[in-house]
Amino acid sequence: AQTVTQSQPEMSVQEAETVTLSCTYDTSENNYYLFWYKQPPSRQMILVIRQEAYKQQNATENRFSVNFQKAAKSFSLKISDSQLGDTAMYFCALSRAGGTSYGKLTFGQGTILTVHP
Amino acid sequence: SAVISQKPSRDICQRGTSLTIQCQVDSQVTMMFWYRQQPGQSLTLIATANQGSEATYESGFVIDKFPISRPNLTFSTLTVSNMSPEDSSIYLCSLAGAYQETQYFGPGTRLLVL
Predict the structure, then answer these.
(1) Chain A CB within 8 Å of residue B108 CB
(2) What's the CA gap between A98 and A2, in Å, rounded?
(3) Helices (H), chain A
(4) Which of A108, A113, B6, B18 is the most buried (most CB within 10 A)?
């Protein structure tokens, strides 16, 4: 079974500063994908960033980057130059890359991020 | 990415009734899924909607309670049957992206059962 753990129920940051959200996971698979999703008050799930487990290079999308530590099964999200629009619930998620569970997402508990002006 | 729509966007239902939620995608996709998000909680996978065959349900979810149809590669429905207040949740459909490694989500259906 796969598990995803987000140990920070809530985080806050000042506008323009940097914040890091933590995520650890457990899987017996060697090939898998890791994701960070953002859920604003509208409840729409928005993909923030994706990491393939076979890639050593950390994924980056504009102000968002990850620190992927495969051996430690850690996948943290760094948000630089935080903006008010970044205020949302952030979910870390894991999916297998093959087999019968292909494409199924296992989510962490979520971290509520509040960006203060 | 594909455009995903869900109907209804929200509904208030009476205990004991059933509600069917529709998910429409603007392109053909292989993998479609249904998730539930209970109030203040994370998302939990209900089932994989398989085109032309029965859905594959996760542990804790059964076909009698959550029947799913998928008549083609662009459309699926989820029915929440014999509802109780505990079924009050957001229900989201999702699909796997072009290379099946990324999932995109519909806008969700917010259900309140009285």
Answers:
(1) yes
(2) 14
(3) none
(4) A108
The strand pair at A64-69 and A74-79 is best described as antiparallel
Query: Distance between the two ends of chain B, CA-based, in angstroms?
Result: 36
Cβ–Cβ < 8 Å for A66, A78: yes
Contact A73, A51 (CB under 8 A): no
Q: Name the residue in chain B with its Cα closest to that of A33.
A: B101
List per-residue pLDDT tens for chain A, 117 residues long: 889 999 999 999 999 999 999 999 999 888 899 999 999 998 999 999 999 999 889 999 999 999 999 999 999 999 999 999 999 999 999 998 766 667 789 999 999 999 999
Q: Given an 8 Å threshold on Cβ–Cβ distance, is B45 in contact with A104?
A: yes
